Amino acid sequence: ITLQGGVRPIDGLREKLAAAFLTECPLVLFPRKNLLVWEKVPAVIRSRVNALPVDTLDEALAKIRELRTDA
């Protein structure tokens, strides 16, 4: 996360998503700049992990708030 609230690309997204899959993590937010990596993740993981790309911290927090109010 930058000082201006931007979300920077990360390394190891495939491994993080595999861990989320194995631990049945309900939600993963990841940088939109990592979408190419997301597309290369095995389909079985993509189908079972609720992963949402975000561009800014504000967008990430809004998605979390939205999900909390739906529960």
Describe this entry's structure for a reader.
It is a single chain. By secondary structure, the chain is mainly α. It has 4 helices and 2 strands, in the order αβααβα. The chain has helices spanning 13-22, 35-40, 43-48, 57-70; strands at 28-31, 51-54. It has a two-stranded parallel sheet. The longest helix has 14 residues, at 57-70. It is globular and about 35 Å long. The mean pLDDT is 93.
Alpha-beta content class = mainly alpha
Name the assembly state. single chain
Which shape, going by the Cα principal axes?
Answer: globular
**Percent range for helical residues?**
40-55%
Number of strands: 2
Share of residues in strands: 5-15%
Count of individual helical segments: 4
Main β-sheet: number of strands, strand sense, barrel status?
2 strands, parallel
Strand order of the largest sheet: 1-2
Flag low-confidence runs. none
- Write the element-wise H/E pattern from the N-terminal end onward: HEHHEH
What Rg is obtained from the alpha carbons, in whole angstroms? 12 Å
- Cα distance spanning the termini: 27 Å
Mean pLDDT, to the nearest integer, reads 93
